[in-house]
Write a structure and sequence with these properties.
Elements lengths: L9 E10 L2 E11 L3 E6 L6 H8 L7 E6 L2 E3 L4 H6 L2 E4 L11 H5 L14 H15 L14 H14 L4 E5 L7 H16 L3 E5 L3 H7 L2 E6 L2 E7 L5 H9 L17 E10 L3 E9 L3 E6 L5 H9 L6 E6 L2 E2 L5 H6 L2 E4 L3 H4 L7 H13 L7 H14 L16 H13 L5 E5 L7 H16 L3 E5 L3 H7 L2 E6 L2 E7 L5 H8 L4 H4 L1
Helix pairs in contact: 4-5, 12-13, 12-14
Bound molecules: adenosine-5'-triphosphate (ATP) and magnesium ion.
Magnesium ion binds next to helix 1.
């Protein structure tokens, strides 16, 4: 039979979905074919996660159809989608920490032995078999507790395999993974594709989309824009379609006057995590901490700010010693920290967008009775415009925002405190390509106004494009300090892997 006559395992036809006045999906169609990895790309708030939740049975479409093997299907609950062979791998899976890997995989559907007891041997064997098919080495008997996010995702994929899922959906799976972990996930994805699964992959990283996916669907404002084989596309075309306009230079770093030293970190050590870290930052300067995931960059930032303790060393702000381990004192001294894990460390999900965006500033100013509800809204609205925030009403809960838009609220929350020193960890993670440029422009402007910025970034182009100075970390130590003119991809990568250029040749 001609393969084109086989109906795709899953398709959406003309699906719409609104939340109050927000039209999240406006007539979207999508076909997930067997043996294919399909990319879905679009700006923050374009409707990607809403589409995923519709396929997963979390949301019901207002109008339009879901076709399972060509037949109309109703996914009234996640169980319906699962029965139709759909599995969703979330960015941060929620395994039960105290259960073993195999128990997590079979939770709620443990195989029974003849006498009605749980057939542990079979659970273990099927888990091991699933891992073997994926080429993954995880012990089925170990507890889920302590598994990396990357491994937790692989456990979820193994679970999908044991359920005979044929449609696998991954919504920004690589956002919290290191490069090596992402590569391992891609190998697994290709294995599944070659075995005939249909995969949907969502990411804001175009290198991943282009190297992994067979076709790319672009959505804008909840509407379908295009779907083409990857081979017929290039990055510029995709970006233009996503954003609906040309995106100008991504790294609009402007020269800024460097003033006095505002931050001095001296011989900071946290045993077993980082050692002997010294650096200083001037007003108007952007210093990047580069290195591989796990090099200790976020840990240094957290210790300097006082979220974590340190064992030796000192921190000074504008010449004054900063007490260790006291974030409140850091905020009073004019420091702000935009954390890496924005969802857990940055926002109160059930509170409104407006309150979240201004919460830190309110704490600073309420003592003087300066920030009334109206001023709060005006300020939140101004930041919303600056950061291209997509929302219905500022009174809506922040949980109703798309992932990338939640990130922007955290940015607003800290930037609105008008700090002297800004620590920003992965400034554009999860943020779409158009807004990335806005965030970069904003950082450049703030530096121009005299802010001292310490930026942690795993994106080399971002480091090279934005930093006046690059400090490279490897295994908890600074292995290189490069100024803007010296820093290039090679020099940073060598230092990040602990090599010297001569060793690598
Ligand atoms: N439960 C909800 N209640 C209200 N509005 C919602 C809800 N879920 C999503 N929205 C809105 O629907 C739109 C689409 O959001 P969605 O999460 O699908 O975007 P996305 O494409 O996944 O974006 P991102 O790249 O930022 O993750 C947004 O405007 C969002 O605020
Ligand atoms: Mg999303």
């Amino acid at each position: 039979m001609d393969p084109s006559e086989v109906p795709p395992p899953l398709a959406l036809v003309d699906v719409t979905k609104s939340f109050g006045s927000v039209r999240a999906l406006r007539g979207l169609s999508l076909e997930l074919r067997a043996g294919e990895i399909h990319a879905l790309v679009g700006e923050n708030g374009a409707g990607k996660s809403t589409l995923v939740k519709t396929i997963a049975g979390v949301h019901r479409p207002d109008t339009g159809q879901i076709l399972s093997d060509g037949e109309p299907a109703v996914f009234a609950a996640p169980a319906d989608a699962q029965r139709a062979g759909v599995a969703v791998i979330y960015q941060e899976p929620t395994l039960f920490p105290d259960l073993s890997v195999a128990e997590n995989i079979f939770i709620g559907r443990q195989p029974r032995a003849r006498l009605g007891t749980i057939d542990r041997a079979r659970m273990r064997a099927e888990t091991a078999e699933a891992f073997a098919r994926l080429g993954v080495d995880i012990d089925p008997d170990r507890p889920a507790n302590g598994l990396s996010i990357a491994d937790q995702q692989l456990v979820e994929i193994a679970k999908a395999l044991t359920r005979r899922a044929r449609v696998l959906i991954m919504d920004e799976p690589t956002a919290a993974l290191s490069g090596v972990e992402a590569e391992r996930l891609f190998t697994v994805a290709r294995t599944l594709r070659d075995a005939g699964s249909a995969l949907l992959f969502i990411s804001h990283r175009f290198d991943e989309v282009f190297s992994l996916c067979d076709r790319i669907t672009v959505v804008r404002d909840g509407a379908f824009v295009s779907c083409d084989p990857t081979a017929d596309l290039d990055v510029d075309t995709v970006v233009r379609r996503m954003v609906g306009r040309e995106v100008t230079s991504l790294y609009p770093k402007e020269e800024a006057e460097h003033g006095d030293v505002v931050l001095e970190v001296e011989a900071l050590t946290r045993t077993g995590v980082f050692a002997d870290v010294s650096f200083s930052v001037r007003a108007g300067e952007i210093v990047a901490l580069a290195g591989l995931v796990g090099a200790g960059r976020s840990e240094v930032v957290r210790a300097v700010f006082g979220v974590d303790r340190y064992d030796a060393g000192s921190v000074r702000v504008a010449g004054d010693p900063l007490p260790a381990g006291r974030p409140k004192a850091s905020i009073r001294a004019g420091m702000a920290l935009v954390p890496e894990d924005r969802r857990h460390q940055g926002l109160v999900m059930e509170e409104s967008i407006g309150r979240n965006a201004t919460s830190t500033r309110r704490r600073v100013l309420s003592r003087f009775g300066l920030l009334g509800a109206r001023a709060e809204h005006a300020e939140a609205r101004a930041w919303g415009e600056r950061l291209n925030l997509k929302y219905g009403s500022l009174d809506d809960a922040v949980s109703t925002l798309s992932g990338g838009n939640q990130q922007k609220v955290v940015l607003a929350k800290w930037l609105s405190t008008e700090p002297r020193v800004l620590f920003i960890d992965e400034p554009t993670r999860g943020i779409d390509v158009g807004t990335k440029a806005e965030v970069h422009r904003l950082l450049s402007t703030l530096a121009g106004q005299g802010l001292a910025i310490v930026m942690v970034s795993s994106e080399l182009p971002e480091v090279l494009g934005m930093a006046d100075r690059v400090l490279v970390m490897h295994e908890g130590r600074i292995t290189a300090e490069l100024d803007r003119a010296q820093a290039d991809e090679e020099s940073v990568m060598y230092a990040a892997t602990g090599q010297r250029p001569s060793e690598a040749a």
